[in-house]
Amino acid sequence: MKLISLTAIAAICAFATTAAAHEFKIGDLVVNHPMAFETAQTAQTAGGFMTITNTGSTADRLIAVEADFPRVEIHTTEMNGDVARMMHLEDGIVLPAGDSIIMKPGGYHVMFMGLRGDPFEVDEEVPATLVFENAGRLEVIFNVEERKMGDHGSMDHGEMDHSDN
To answer: Taking a C-beta distance cutoff of 8 angstroms, is the pair 53, 97 a contact?
Structure first.
């Protein structure tokens, strides 16, 4: 029987906790769990989601997201009856001091456009750079996860109106 030291166990637990947390920091901003759902083979777009917490005493703003796609935009979803419409937020999203912004299906999200026949697949990692007005640039990884019912399982970003009108 092989014995493992308490130090080794603590190191393993710390690594597991850090890996599970999937958290990125820059200045007073904490970006928690950037992720995207797997997409259909024919999808041309994918949504990215995360929580951004501003622990500071002054507001900041997420002004852009950069990634290796023809277009990447910050969006919100507006409902008109039963129809969801994506709206490009040209001025980004204000991150109030001492508050969190949740980017989730049906609300604020990152729109990756132009997948070019390369769908997002479970366990894939999508590198991106978040650009903040004050805090600067932060490299993050969007983990691609399985879409489960209740995660807007029927929502297909490829079928939605992405016009800026």
So the answer is: no
Task: State residue 86 phi and psi, 5-degree precision.
Answer: -80, 135
Domain ranges in the chain are 23-159
Against a cut of 0.90, is the pTM above it? no
HEC string of 61-117 equals: EEEEEECCCCEEEEEEEEEECCEEEEEECCCCEEECCCEEEEECCCCCEEEEECCCC
Under 8 Å between Cβ of 74 and 52: no
Residue 31, strand partner residues: 24, 52
pLDDT over 90 at 71, yes or no: yes
Q: Alpha-carbon distance 138 to 80, whole Å?
A: 34
23-159 CATH pick, 1.10.287.470, 1.10.8.60, 2.60.40.1930, 2.60.40.1890: 2.60.40.1890
Query: Hey, what's the torsion of the CAs at 67, 69, 70, 71, to 10 degrees?
Result: -50
Q: What is the pLDDT of residue 66?
A: 98
Residue 133 carries which DSSP code? Answer: T
User: What is the mean predicted confidence (pLDDT) over 77-99?
Assistant: 94
